[in-house]
Amino acid sequence: MSTPQVAPPSVDEIAPLEEPVTAPVQTMGGKREMLHFAVRNRKLVVGLSVTLAMLVFAVVGPFLAHHPPLEYGGKLSWAPTTKDGYWFGTTLLGQDVYAQFVNGLRLAFIVGALGGGIAAGVGMLVGFTAGYRGGVVDEVLNMLTNVVLVIPTFALLLVIAAYLKVRGIMMESVFIGLTSWPWAARALRAQTFSLVSRDFVGMARLSGRNSWQIIFKEIAPNMSSYLFMMFILLFGGAILIAATIDFIGLGPSNTISLGMMMQLSVQNAALQLHLWWWFLPPGLAIMTIVASLYVMNVGLDEVFNPTLREL
Amino acid sequence: MRRYFLRKLFIYLLTFVIAVTIDWAIPHLMPGNPVLTLMGRLQIQDPKVAQNVYHHYMRAFNLDLPLWKQYYYFWVSLLHGDLGTSILQFPSSVTSIIVHAVPYTLGLLIPATLLSWYAGNKVGALAARRKVLDNTVLPVAYALTATPYMWLAILLSWTLAVTWKVFPVGFAYDPTAQRAWTWTFVANLLQHWFLPFMSLFLVAFGGWAIGMRNMIIYELESDYAHYLEALGAPQRLVRKYAFRNAVLPQITGLALSLGAVIAGALVTEIVYSYPGLGYQIYRAITNEDYFVIQGIFLFIILGVLIANFLVDIAYLIVDPRTRIGMEGTKA
């Protein structure tokens, strides 16, 4: 394969794409060592705890809401209060901001998990197949990856979503998943390439295992840390994309998400009316979740990759 | 060299064809007759007018023709620069709407992208492996890159424009201002431009700073860097070489990040009612003005493809290895 033209795949957060994963499959001792560094890594601990706290909030929060998120019942434009459970105040139209917020938080995690999961799945399928098979299969898959990589997928999502009358959170997640896999596929392809020529893969071939067994039992475990980090980044990315789609007015039609809260607040001049309790929480929540995911990712990177550890 | 460009051009051409096909196919694939949906939205009372409008749309969409012919005509009108007519802003063509909106969007996008790339790389390189800087810059950069574009725009607008009134709240210029190329009008434009620009710049800046910081750490840990250090080269020199190598993936990243920045520009414009493509697409979406949505989609694709091509050329100029790899090792 002489393709020096292919520029190194670069994605902001994952740096060592060209570096083959050299660590062998973790033994018991290795696992304990990882844990040793994991619990002492401040970035990982902080990122993970904030993410988990937000997750708990997303799961439990909706049960504590006093009103359905879309119900118009409260006084208009109330500041946060303890009365009637309007802890986050009400919107211009008298809806419970707290109820909307926790509902949106839940949706954000669903979109992240589903969209990120689907993207990771497609990325693995394409990346492993291209890297393992090589040849024509690789050429075709590589071309597909490049095409999807170049298309501004957000614009694509806009056009598709604009024509859908009824939009659900599931559909949104599937769309995001199906359009955000290319960089992952590219990175995995490069990693797989570097592993395929190793002796242990040759041994596995000799012992008569089929391709998928080799990919999932021999190759994938050697980049399990990498796969996990990739999923985290796709998870955060899916949340951000969903927020953008929702903000532009193409979110799910039967519920309310964090992006839609921001859209409605801007549309209803909440900024000019200083209804900060309406437009500050949704963005802050997204920022907190995504930032803590990213920070957690850096922590994990340091745990898995000794050269990065701060001394 | 030729082979490289031909290959790239082929990918871009293929992408464009696929994008156009999707753009054409989506209205056709959706259940129901799009013209009837449009008619329903127009709510024309007079049946005679309705009949006329219906036939007009059937002809405009070429829906009375066989599918392959419809597809063919779609390309023909596209190549003539005809993207249809807006329903919301009736007699204006989609092309003219785009032409009027594009300068605003590009005026935000290009400076924000290039300046954030430059500043992010510089700051990221500075912060790497320097404890104090790393611990202050990095958390800020992570917070910025995790911020949804529209939320930062909302935040800046609410604090700097609405509350403290340092900047105007929205639009591209004061509606009362005289539209002429005078200094006062340019100053007015710049005032309105600053906040949307800043929102875009800050979010993108975070991403670049983190990317560069991570890249340069890998470079500083590589053999050539250690070798240089062992030779007693000053830190500045080692960092300079590390920076040069680390900047290459960042150039590729510039092409990859375009989609996200454009999405960011679209929503930022919405927050500030800034009359670029994002504002137009938002109006089109809320009013279901499909031709405008489809036209802007195609325009964005075209812009991204051109930008990708420019980045490819920049990469060739910056990285000697790609050049040598393509021309053969003459040296």
Helix content of chain B: over 70%
Q: How would a textbook summarize the main sheet of chain A?
A: none
Q: Give Rg of chain A in angstroms.
A: 22 Å
| Biggest chain pair interface | A-B, 65 and 80 residues
The total beta strand count of chain B reads 0
**Average pLDDT across residues of chain B?**
85
Sequence of secondary-structure elements of chain A: HHHHHHHHHHHH
**Large-scale geometry of chain A:** globular
User: Which oligomeric state applies?
Assistant: heterodimer
Order of helices and strands of chain B: HHHHHHHHHHHHH
Radius of gyration of chain B: 25 Å
The secondary structure category of chain B is mainly alpha
Distance between termini of chain B? Answer: 16 Å
Descriptive notes:
The complex is a heterodimer of chains A (311) and B (331). Chain A is mainly α and 311 residues long. Chain A is 67% helix and 0% strand. Chain A has 12 helices and no strands. Chain A has helices spanning 28-40, 42-64, 97-133, 135-150, 153-163, 169-179, 182-196, 199-206, 211-219, 224-250, 258-267, 276-304. Chain B is built from 13 helices and no strands. Chain B has helices at residues 2-29, 34-42, 47-61, 67-79, 94-127, 131-146, 149-163, 183-220, 223-230, 235-272, 277-286, 290-318, 320-327. The model of chain B has no long low-confidence stretch (mean pLDDT 85).
What is the compact description of this entry?
The complex is a heterodimer of chains A (about 300) and B (about 325). Chain A has about 300 residues and is mostly helical.
